[in-house]
Amino acid sequence: MKGKTFKEGQYVVYPAHGVGIVQGIETQNIAGTDLKVLVISFEKDKMVVRLPINSAMAKKVRSLCTKEEMEKAIESLRTPTKVKKMMWSRRAQEYEAKINSGDLMSITQVVRDLHRTATQPEHSYSERQIYQEAMDRLMREYAAVAQIDEDQALEKLQEVLAA
Questions:
Q1: Nearest-CA neighbor of 106 among 127, 133, 86, 129?
Q2: Which of 23, 117, 139, 144 is the most exposed place for a label (fewest CB within 10 A)?
Q3: The whole model's pTM is what?
Q4: pLDDT bucket at 81, cuts 50 / 70 / 90
């Protein structure tokens, strides 16, 4: 993890699971080899992930975005939806890839594209699942950046989407 240093108690974003808290760096002996691992806990999911520091996955772990980056992301929720005309299965794959990239703006695009107002038709089950996953990731990062609880973050994001 050249150039990246994480401290115990720091919030980080791990693309596969969203926002977690660094518990520390441990040395584990695996098959006779000592490996340094970054320990990240995801309290909401009741899960702890240990990533070898030299692994490609550990390189994808990032610090939380800045307040300015979050404001830019929230502002992008106000822009018109840009849904491509293609089969849902293909769009669903693209949305999943955006969510799993861990990129804040990509996740925000998924939330914006899949948000439905009261006058629009209901989501299919798979659309609701993808929308909820993207909204959870965005809401958790927003809550951590703004230092508010997740319910307040969700309420604020829903207000922006409803405007």
A1: 133
A2: 117
A3: 0.84
A4: confident
